[in-house]
Design goal:
The chain is built from two helices and 33 strands. The protein has helices at residues 2-27, 361-397; strands spanning 37-43, 46-48, 64-66, 69-76, 83-85, 91-95, 99-103, 109-112, 115-119, 125-127, 133-137, 143-145, 153-154, 161-169, 176-184, 190-197, 201-203, 206-215, 218-228, 231-232, 238-243, 251-256, 261-264, 271-275, 281-288, 293-298, 303-308, 311-314, 320-324, 327-330, 336-339, 348-351, 353-355. The two termini are 20 Å apart.
Length: 398
Amino acid sequence: MLESIYVGMTGLLGYSRGLRVIANNTANLNTPGFKSSSLQFTDLFYTGGNLSGGNTGANQGQNQLGFGLNTAGTSISFKQGELRQTGNDLDMAVDGQGLFVLQNADGKVSYTRAGQFKFDTDGTLVKRVGGEKVMALGEGDAFVPITLAGQMMNPGKTTTKLTFTGTVPASGTDALVVGGLQVIDASGQSHALTMKLYQATSTPEGMSVKVEILDGTVVIATNALVFSDGKPVAATARIPVTYSPAGQPPMALTLDFGTDVVLFSGGTQIKMASQDGVAPGTLSGAVFDETGTLRMTYTNGQTVKGARLALARFSSPDAVESLGGNQFDVLDKSAWRLGSAGEGAFGKIASGRVEISNVDLSQEFSDLVIMQRGYQASSQVISTANEMLQQLFSMKSK
């Protein structure tokens, strides 16, 4: 009967541990990236049924008595939780397999499904709580931090081509003036040039129009634009111009009249449709696309790709250890793989969302009832064994 008390005590201990696991799961119901656990129960060792120590013979296997309940650790469930929208572009979730890679100030690497990130004052992407750096994959699969340092400004682009559209009047006594031809020099400064088109004259090649390009009142280039059947001749449709802004190196410009310019007696006058120069701009936004690639946008309308998030995954949950703080560690490196979002078995990145806990509250409550009943039953076994011992002692006293 004393053995029965000890067996009942193993039940009390095991079910109390099970209650603690359930309590931890339910307490983290709203913890982003939290993965629920379940306690694994096993039975303890067995002995032959002849407690007096005698030989049980051939029936020894059928007369074994157990010594109670044991717990063999917890098992983590990596079932994906719901992806909830937050409105913060730097909140990210992995839709599928994969964990974000973090590195703390001591260089220790850990992994998480809770993608609540921000750029710190140094422009480095870090975990919002804890401040661990978020890693990208560099050469040779080396981890490198993701930073905006050196990328707060976009230098823009020097103008190389101006494209025109519209009509050139076939007749007229006055020169046609087209102003406001904006070009961007190597320093990012904008300059307004002027174009003059003079009356068309007949030549053996077709109708020729004299073209002048001016910087203020200074003529910087003169050329001829020849039309055949009302359209620019290919040999003259792209006019080269060398422009030297004050204090800047010479710029090689091309005036492209292409096929959208015609010689006509009426209609809309010619105008500049576009130019390929871009003024400098400052960083206006930074988000990650579904491949985990950083995309930086600037006030000049430019978008530049940056680093790409590193992701890690494992082939067995036994290779993972919970560290707390929504982070995990590696137990078996051979079961882990590195990669990028959207490649192979890795999931895609969902920006502006965060993965919430995967705790199933209805399952936890069901398990809670089982743990409670198991605890009550083990307690009842101890009480019954105690009563039987008391009866035995009272018999001896008589």
